[in-house]
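Render this sequence as a predicted structure.
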Amino acid sequence: MSVFGVLLVVACVTSCTMGEMFTAMAELQAALYAEHDVAGAIKMYIKSEEARLNKLKRTAEELESHSSYALENPDRNIANPVDAFLFVKKFTLDWDRNVATLFEKNRTQQELLNRIESYRQALPTDEDLLGAVSALMRLQDTYKLDTARLAQGDINGIHSAELSADACFEIGRVNYVHEDYVHAETWMKQALRSLPGNPLSVSGFRAEILDYLSFTVYKVD
């Protein structure tokens, strides 16, 4: 089933306002269009950056080639007035026109950020995150869904995306912040179970989960 179908199942078992759950089809479709636009903006930025970096690379190669040649015999290669003029012109007029602008990376970055910010009006907010977690908890409680199976993408027989250790942790953290310690404990334990096999690669993350988990257990008991 598509993400739209899964969200509709969630909506059927909840009585959420828009602030609680980002499932209204109009808003969801607008967010998907915005996501597509963000991807397009990033790809345009990458294309622009690649062109800028390629031009910088050509400039560096030209400078290196010219200097290597000229340094073989400076008296012969740049001693006459014409060559001296062209050399000076390269690092004054030509530099300002053709090279200095290539270093204006921050300008293109800011243009990208401004464009993405304009799309954010249609994208989910922190309030929607809280609503999505609340709806997921209601769904779990209503159908008494096993946390592990839910994390594996099994919503009472409906298949959805699997939840990573990070996603499980964030569900637990949202519940923790809003003092729903029972759900917080359940999802922190699932986050631990979902960690990859190599303990060294996630030691810091594991410690963070255990910190939250120890406090939620204390609050539940």
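Summary. The chain has two domains: 25-122, 126-154+162-220. The CA atoms of residues 60 and 72 lie 18 Å apart.
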